[in-house]
Amino acid sequence: MNLLTLHRDEARHAFFEEHSSSPPFFDTAMGCWIVANPRHIEQLLLEPRLGPADYAGPYEQLTRKRGLPFPNIQFASRHLPFCLEGAEHQQSRRRVAGLLSLRRAAAVEEMEDFVDRAFSVFDRGGTVELMSEVIAPLVLHAIRSVADARFMGADDFMASAAFFDRMLGPKKRLQLESRLGAIRSKLRDSIDGISQDEEGVRLTLFLAGYETLLGTLGESVHWVLRQHQAARLCDVPFPDFPPQTGVPIIERRVAESFEFAGVRLSAGERLRFYLQAFTYGDEPKAGIFGLGPRTCLGKQLSLEAWRIVTGALMRKPTRFRILEYEARSDNYIFTCPKTLLLEAS
Amino acid sequence: MSQNTPPRGQLTREAARQHVLDAIQETVGILYDPRFADILDGGDRDVTFIELEFDSLSAMEFCLQIDDTIGIEVEPADLVLYPSINTLAEHLMAKSAAR
């Protein structure tokens, strides 16, 4: 079983069926505990003896051993809630939640204004590449609007979610550093007097918002459409909740050793949680957004985006067929279609 | 990232394996351990990176070493996908043929 790419392999369905009630197990190839049992995920995400994954460690090592500088990654590590603990974590989450709450209505309005224009590509007939022609522009509108940063383009965000991928090699880490530097420069050049906290909160939205929302919408639309091939879009019964997630995996580090479900989780060890486990059967679908003190802050915006996208699809009398689907393979942490080509007639 | 100009052209299997062994020695130095003495003595035994006690930090250092010496980009993910000396050497051989 290749756990590195399981989250985007068809083999995952059998894996989750097999492990839905199993205790955590240690995978030597990945060097961490694997948790795919939804009940255990729920319990462990509330466990105070687990801390955030160490995203900054590999960069510190590259600086220490090779003198490679990563000032922008270090900046992100000091501002992203995913990297922080205790009071700093709470403060950082409050900043992100504050901006989301302030700007969400504007983002929803912007998506609603834009959605019919985006989906008009179906009216021309022929082929429609749903990701690049429809979903990506819509998500870009949403994230730019929430961040109040209309000057940002899709290229600015692309592959920035790689920040969370521990399998990145040194060259890609340097490329990421350079991309973050470019984003920060653009923010400082475009927003007069922007504070470090304001910069940090926007960086959080870009790194953790753009590609994850793109993935959740893209994977979910594909999941539903593939079960209704050759139907008319207006006849497809889209569920109220996105059935798939762009964030299939999250990680935590054991801060203090403890026993759980018959296994000993030792300080320093990593745990890899498969949130995809919540996409099966009667599992509570909200589990894909995690739970506890590190629940996804973008949940509400994601649900609004899903409502808008599926609403627009259900207004189309177009008959469709999936011609091509290809998953992105440029990282080992997220799921997102690279291509979702439909034939519309 | 390479500090010197790395050799170009296709690697033979033996050369690729030797570069992997050299990078392992540079990174974790574990091949001096009596458990692996036959490997340093020229044996062809295959050993996984887990047996060689690699962790995520040593994996990163190993990737840097490979890039420095032969100019082929390797990522920590490759050590999961090609989890032993010989499988990684074959992967490097294939990558060198493609450049």
Q: How does the helix and strand content of chain A classify structurally?
A: alpha+beta
CATH topology type of chain B: Non-ribosomal Peptide Synthetase Peptidyl Carrier Protein, Chain A
Main sheet: strands, sense, barrel of chain A? 5 strands, mixed
Provide a count of the helices of chain B: 5
How would you characterize the overall build of this protein?
- The complex is a heterodimer of chains A (345) and B (99).
- Chain A is α+β, with helices and mostly antiparallel strands.
- Chain A has helices spanning 12-19, 38-45, 57-66, 71-79, 86-119, 130-147, 154-157, 170-190, 196-225, 299-313, and strands spanning 25-27, 32-35, 50-52, 126-129, 249-254, 258-260, 263-265, 270-274, 320-327, 337-344.
- Chain A has one domain: Cytochrome P450 (Cytochrome p450).
- Chain A has ten helices and ten strands.
- In chain A, the strands form three sheets. A five-stranded mixed beta sheet of chain A has the order 1-2-8-5-3. A three-stranded antiparallel beta sheet of chain A has the order 4-10-9. A two-stranded antiparallel ribbon of chain A has the order 6-7.
- In chain A, a hairpin with a 4-residue loop joins strand 1 and strand 2 (32-35).
- The mean pLDDT of chain A is 95.
- Chain B has one domain: Non-ribosomal Peptide Synthetase Peptidyl Carrier Protein, Chain A, CATH 1.10.1200.10.
- Helix content of chain B is 55%, strand content 0%.
- In chain B, helix 1 (13-27) crosses helix 5.
- Chains A and B meet through helix 3 and helix 8 of A and helix 3 and helix 4 of B.
